[in-house]
Amino acid sequence: MFRFAARTLAKRPGFTAVAALTLGLGIGATTAVFSIVDAVLLRPLPYKDPGRLAAVWITSTREKGLAKIFATHADYAGFHRDARSFESVAAATWATHTGRVLTGIGPAREVLTIPASASFFDTLGVHAAVGRTFRLEDEAHGCSLVLAHKFWTSALAADRGIIGKNLTLDQQPCAVLGVMSEDFSFYPAPAQAWILLGPAFQADQDRMLVGIFARLRPGVTLAQAETELRSLYRIIHPGGDARDLQPVVYDLHGEFTFLAGRTLRTTLILVFAAVLLVLLIACLNVANLLLARLSERSRELAIRAALGSGQGRLVRQVLSEGLLLSGLGAVLGVAIAWGAVRYFRAASPIELSVGAKVAVSLPVLVFSGALSIATTLIFGLLPALRASRVDLTRHLKAAGRGFVPGRHRLAKSVIAIEVALSYMLLTGAALLMTSAFRMGSEHLGFNPDGVLATSVSLPAFRYSTDARRMRTWDQLLERLERVPRAAGVALASKIPPNAGGNQVLEIQGWPVAAGGEIHDVGADAVSPGFFDVLGIALRRGRFFGVQDRETSQPVAIVNESLSRKYFPDGDPVGRQIRIPGGAMPWLNIVGVVANVKHTQLMDEMSWVETPIFYRPLAQEPRPSMQIAVRAFGEMGPLGQDIQKQIATVDPAIPINNVEALTSRLAHTLAYPRFRATVLTLFALGALILSAVGLHGVLSQLVAQRIPEFGVRRAVGAQTQDLLLLIARQGGLPVLAGIGVGVSLTLVFSRVMTRLLYGIQPADPKALAMVSVMLLLVAALAILPPARRAARVDPMTALREE
To answer: Residue 3 needs a FRET pair 20 to 30 A away by CA distance; which of 195, 389, 586, 687 works?
Structure first.
């Protein structure tokens, strides 16, 4: 049977190639997307028994902006000591000083070093590839390190002799205990080493902010563990904190996905659903092609049935042809998926979660095989059922004409379904594309064009005082201002689009009531030229100047958002503010500037304006700052000049990459643009498939009805009559599909609400635009068959009859 099916397909190479290519593209796209979904959402984390691993954060019961924050080391110590829901508890943090300067091995470089507790690696159930991981007794032996495999190979040439020796970080000798395997990773993925939380952190360890990671005991649920931790938290914090804050426990796998991108899970689910719709449209298109082939073979099938072939045999024959087509499509699809996955890994358009390695793996191949079988059933079932219902009398009477009245109803129904699915995809793509465009074109309160940015961290061992830090910052500003093509230079603790904070603001004369604190204020230190370089407008008062030094009156500039929220009844200039509970003096407000928009941790699809105040760098010389340089004309080698000037100030200062500020914005917009681009490609593919299917059905209908059209012309039918006849035959399924598509879109588009910016899911303009586009494409698909029908020569058609 398969041999006969292969011969049958070989006789029509064009048909076979088109059908196999259509299926191959559908299966390939679906397999490629599934490989990403599998790597991020389905594949377990590369740790021992990962289903029992959990992450613990602190959340506010009053403030939505504090949905997930770090706990304190004191919280970790209490949970580690008293929690019974966990087999083990560990701490690791990237909320504190993680950039340490490595010296003694080539030029000074900054190493991303994550502080972690002695139980960190044991809790994950992982071991070192070389040497060992932390032990509890290491806390008494000074600074200890475990290296990431990539750092070990790139910076230390994979030297096994480094185990037991010291690396110098921030002028402190740190013993290297081991090297992790190449496959090991944890958040943040670029981490180059893990340093033991021990003697080096004793001074302020209790107040240190940490992430808590734990392994549940067998049989204990996340909810049970959370209930116990909240009871312990109230014991650890008998005061006000326990009223407003509480611990929450999450699955570690889900948290890695969240940390990579708040909308990553939704993005992948949406893209996978879209590609499944495209595959369904491809299957329906191939089903229509097979139905058309059956129309041509109707007399053959009738003769086979007359000679004794039963319905089962005819069904098996058609399904075997479908199985061969799907097999060809699967082979082609795997090749397409392999190429697409390689491109995705090379281009890296979005950040994936820790440990997610996208590849055409065995589970992906199994999925592809199952997909090919499913597609056989989808596109082969309709033709097979049609083949099983051969009407001998009617088909043999049709002789060689091949046309039987009513045969194309099923094909037209398939077209209507394709149009409806295409409408959904096109509407989703239009919404996401509009959203990404509006988010990318939003005025953010600053001008990123022509600005280069980098970060600088002064080694703590050389710059332990404010005076020394400020001298270095002044020297660096002076040197950078002399760089050719530098039109303006500024230093800031944060450069947009990084902005915002979670500090409590106190206004002189209005003390903060106990339990009424709101953690929503950002506090940044900037040099006098910051607002000019970034193009942030002054609304009232003045900018910082050279007179604002460490010995002058402490001053601040606030943004409009802070002014509106905390001074709604008057001008804030002349009022005094501070962050309570620390050493910050009262700051006299001297100016108000425009808001800078930024994204939120829990909502990446929005630009927000949060309260921020700025202090002069000279009055708060922080050890780590961002550099912003506005280029005069072309940027050229300006980035290299910036790095050279930093090295000239002090060779011990590590040099970081210089990037355009527009690149930082592009990273922020990566997920919206990725979603919009991918869904647009799928939607266009679906539109093309639907148009091709409509054109094919109508072409087949015209070819089989040429004798009828000849008779119509002979009895007086005009050209416009035949044009309208074919337009009606093709237009009705399209209109029906658009109607169904509008209904489905209104139902399902609401799931996209969190992915949209500046547009509603049921936007009338988007719905109308997609409807017009589909009608235009349908008209282009209908026109050639209609013109062919209108040009039928009645004499030729009747002679052929």
So the answer is: 389
Is the pLDDT higher at 477 or at 67? 477
In whole angstroms, give the CA distance from residue 550 to residue 135. 45
733: preceding bond cis by omega (within 30 degrees): no
pLDDT classification of 20: cutoffs 50, 70, 90: confident
Most confident of 57-66, 217-226, 454-463, 754-763: 217-226
Which of residues 243 and 89 earns the better pLDDT score?
89
Asked if the peptide bond before residue 115 counts as cis, ω within 30 degrees of 0, the response is no
CB 628 within 8 A of CB 530: yes
- Residues 766-796 have pLDDT tens digits of 999 999 999 999 998 888 888 887 777 666 5
DSSP class of 544: -
Whole-angstrom Cα distance, residue 251 to residue 265?
14
Q: For 363, list phi and psi in degrees, rounded to 5.
A: -60, -35
- What is d(CA 748, CA 365) in angstroms, rounded to the nearest whole number? 30
E strands in 404-510: 451-457, 486-492, 506-507
pLDDT in tens, 381-417: 665 555 555 554 554 454 444 444 455 677 788 888 8
pTM of the model: 0.85
Q: Are 622 and 612 in contact (CB under 8 A)?
A: no
Question: Tokens 């139980």, residue?
Answer: 119
Mean pLDDT of 79-93: 95
Pairwise CA distance, residues 375 & 377, whole Å: 5
The per-residue DSSP string of 156-206 comes to HTT-GGGTTSEEEETTEEEEEEEEE-TT---SSTT--EEEESSGGG-TTTT
Residue 54 tokens read as: 């959990």
Pair type for strands 144-147 and 172-180: parallel
Question: Is the CB of residue 778 less than 8 Å from the CB of residue 695?
Answer: no
562-583 burial code (b ≥16 CB/10 A, e <16): bbeebbeeeebbebbbbbeeee
Asked if residues 784 and 696 have their Cβ atoms less than 8 Å apart, the reply is: no
Query: Rounded to whole angstroms, how far apart are CA atoms 368 and 265?
Result: 22
Vertex 659 angle, CA 655 and 660, to 5°: 150
If phi > 0 it is left, if psi is from -120 to 50 it is alpha, else beta; for residue 406 that is left
